[in-house]
Amino acid sequence: MLWLWIALGILGVALTAATAFHLHILRNHMPFLVRVFQEKPLFIIPFAPPSDDAEEVDLITADGLTLKGCYLKHAGPRKGVILFGPEFGASRWGCIPYCEFLRQSGYDIFTFEMRGQGQSQAQAGYEPLQWLTEYEIEDFQTALEYLRRRADAEPRGIGLFGLSKGGSAGLWIAAHDPYVRCIVTDGAFGTISTMVPYMKQWIYIYSRAPWVVKLIPHWYYVWAAYIGIGRISRIRNARYPVLENVVRRIAPRPWLMIHGGADNYIKPASARDLFARAGEPKELWLVDKAKHNQAIQTAGGDYQRRVRDFFDKHLSDAAPAGREGVAAPAGQASPNGAATKERSPRAVKV
């Protein structure tokens, strides 16, 4: 009986200590996490002048916002259609440095500006950050539905090419919609796999007992990250999806993940963590010495070759697709018109 009381006493002390530590984290470190999460890093944004031969497109989201897009056609028989997801803060014309070589190789390119970005309409009460939210997913669903309903739609499905936040949104969409046949991302990142390493670093720097970082189990950091995301969601009136929970659904469709080997924002370890959660077929290319969103400048022609070869292998068919595609549903605008306001039946909740 004595041993039972001793064991209960030890358990009580352990629970008290764990509760005190958790309250310490919430009180002293969580506000810092919430503040840093909302800071905007200084990204190098891709830029290009408008293309004279682009087909300008207005997309109307299910919640009534107008998004600006452009459709760039290949001059001859096309190999396929690629949806390009731009980086946070970039305009639709930022796709040209990343996609013009694909267009010249036989692909049609469609891209757009997410809400509150470029010339797209802003949403009242919502300020976009570099993190993926339910609203960017809504925008990508609208773009995908537009491509599905064009008069020259590609019945076989499309490819997706996304940069950083645009890549993260593309992964979420690909995980939920089989119309995406394959995907290339550059600098894509998940929320939890990015937050946890930074949390360990912050606690190590700002704690009076940095040695405690190694004693905290990984699951606790993940749990704390979810708590932080919940607080930020309430502050910013937006839900932040956990990409790590859905990337496994992309398989068996292929994924090429490109990431800067010297990325100081999204560490290569975070990219590997997200990549490891996906099924085959998949390929990770860490570009040596490349920083965030700088792989194309660092790798040069090799970047273009690998991306083009990927789409040629997984998207292009031996016989180029014609432009007759499939008929647009009743009530849908012409190819250069606005997408339907009705939410796609394939829309998913975050």
In words, what does this structure look like?
The protein is an alpha/beta fold. The protein has a domain at 55-192 and 236-314: Rossmann fold. 39% of the residues lie in helices and 14% in strands. It has ten helices and eight strands. The protein has helices spanning 2-28, 30-37, 96-104, 134-149, 165-176, 191-206, 218-236, 268-276, 295-299, 301-314, and strands at 55-60, 66-72, 80-85, 107-112, 158-163, 180-186, 255-260, 282-287. Strands 1-2-4-3-5-6-7-8 form an eight-stranded mixed sheet, sandwiched between helices. Helix 4 (134-149) packs across helix 5 (165-176). The protein is globular and about 85 Å long. It starts with a helix and ends in a 36-residue tail after the last helix. The relative contact order is 0.15.
Task: Write a short abstract of this structure.
The protein is α/β, with parallel strands linked by helices and 350 residues long.
